[in-house]
Amino acid sequence: MKIFIDSADIKEIEKYVSWGICDGVTTNPSICLKSGVSGGEEGMKQRLIEIARLIAPQPLSVEVTSDDLEQVLNQARKFNTWAENITVKVTITDRNGNSLLPAIYRLVSEGISVNVTAMMTFNQAILAAKAINAGMAKTSARKIHNISIFAGRISEEHGVEQAQKVLEDVRQWLDFHNYKNIEIIVGSVRSPENVDLWGKSGAHILTIPPEVLAKCLLSARTKETVVQFINDASKAMQQL
Ligand code: E4P
Predict the structure, then answer these.
(1) Do 29 and 58 contact (CB within 8 A), yes or no?
(2) What crossing angle do the helices spanning 160-176 and 151-158 adopt, rounded to 10°?
(3) With respect to CATH, is domain 2-239 assigned 3.20.20.70?
(4) pLDDT digits (tens, 9 = 90+) for 180-214
């Protein structure tokens, strides 16, 4: 299972790269806002290119800022030129529930790596996978594509077990139908308990916000044990 950092904060990403646990980064407009990205599209471009360089060749998901089909296509094509390791993120539908699968199918067929995002159901995920697969049949490019299932948001409405079931069912479906090059990303991870559960769902990737990742390392008993070792080490050194 891979770990992505769900952030556009350079310092946080640098930290987890230095820990050796960053297999990629995911962003979206809300994350860019939270991470203090400013300066309009140029500011966003500079920050995202910096992240892409920092983690290369690992992938960076960059989300389009429009839900209009033509604008999605144009923006995605533009973002794709910013760095080789950029995956373009497109929501499964627009704000009114209209399908964005035509854009997804088209972009994949043009050889652009796509991450279909904001998905809550099994049905959405398999339709996204089918559109990606159909796009892949039209190109010789062999890129990895993602389907992002927002497990945290599913849980808020239906509980963590339902989120787990969606993840397990989608993974089983992908494997059963031999869908290659499509990896599930678990999104909206809120706690170490979520990591503990969904890390065993069969999803290929968990994208984790820095604050949750930091908590995953902690255990009161570990701290207590390290204190004991350090104290005993200094006593032992005095006796030598
Ligand atoms: C995933 O790629 C998304 O960026 C993210 O996990 C969404 O999480 P949210 O529910 O906190 O917006």
Answers:
(1) no
(2) 130
(3) yes
(4) 899 999 999 999 999 999 999 999 999 999 999 99
Region of 210 (left: φ > 0; alpha: ψ -120 to 50; beta: rest) is alpha
User: Is 180 noted as a catalytic residue in this protein?
Assistant: no
Q: How much distance in Å is there from the Cα of 188 to the middle of ligand 1?
A: 4
pLDDT at 180: 86
Ligand 1 first shell, C-beta below 6 A: 6, 26, 28, 30-31, 117, 148, 150, 152-153, 185, 187-188, 207
Assess whether pLDDT exceeds 80 at residue 240.
no
Dihedral pair phi/psi, residue 45, rounded to 5° = -60, -45
CB-based contact 214:223 (threshold 8 Å): no
Per domain, the residue ranges of the chain are 2-239
User: How many residues does the structure list for the chain?
Assistant: 240
Claim: this prediction has a pTM higher than 0.85: yes
Strands 86-91 vs 60-63: parallel, antiparallel or unpaired: parallel
Distance between CA atoms of 13 and 51, rounded to whole angstroms? 8
Name the band, by pLDDT with cuts 50, 70 and 90, for residue 139: very high
In this structure, what token pair is assigned to residue 157? 């409405």
CB 100 within 8 A of CB 69: yes
What does the angle CA 157 – CA 120 – CA 118 come to, to the nearest 5 degrees?
Answer: 115
Task: Please report, to the nearest 10 degrees, the dihedral formed by the alpha carbons of residues 79, 32, 215, 59 taken in order.
Answer: 10
Nearest in space to 63 (alpha carbons), one of 117, 13, 103, 107 = 117
Q: Is the pLDDT of residue 174 over 80?
A: yes
Annotated catalytic residue, options 11, 34, 45, 89 = 89
Nearest CA to ligand 1 atom 1: 187
